[in-house]
Amino acid sequence: MSDRNKGALLVVVQFVLLFAIIVLPHGVLWPVPEELGTVAVLVLMTGLAITLFGFVSLGSSLTATPLPKEEAALRTTGMYAIVRHPIYLGLILIGVGLSLPAGSVFTVIACLLLIALLSYKARFEERLLIAKFPQYQDYASRVGRLIPFVGTLRK
Fold first, then answer.
1. pLDDT tens-digit series, residues 11-38
2. Domain definitions of the chain by residue range
3. pTM of the model
4. What DSSP string runs through the chain?
């Protein structure tokens, strides 16, 4: 499978999983007190904000797939100074925020699959970024992958 097709497939699957988290039936796996609902909204809003700031930080280098544009510049400022994949982090937080009040094993499974997929997608994208930008390895040795200071690459 080509990198282009693989990238497109990963994007489709991530949106299918997010959609599944939204539409899967809610359950009674855990009680959903008002406080949990508040936490879920805060996590969801934080995820939306991080995703938006990630989009803005990428500017004209933003693409729909993990393949960097031919004319793309490596972004290491804004949200990208904190984590290498803020959009993926934001999507994970959105998934968690949507899953918390669901009380369903199905949403938990879909959320865990989303986290696994985005972790894989980040590694796939990094392989492409290392090939395109010689300075990416140095940047990745200082900045965490999805969590600040966690998942830095060795030089």
1. 999 999 999 999 988 877 777 788 888 9
2. 3-22+33-61+75-142
3. 0.91
4. --HHHHHHHHHHHHHHHHHHHHHSPP--SS---HHHHHHHHHHHHHHHHHHHHHHHHHGGG--SSSSPPTT-----SGGGGTBS-HHHHHHHHHHHHHHGGG--HHHHHHHHHHHHHHHHHHHHHHHHHHHH-TTHHHHHHHSBSSBTTBSPPP-
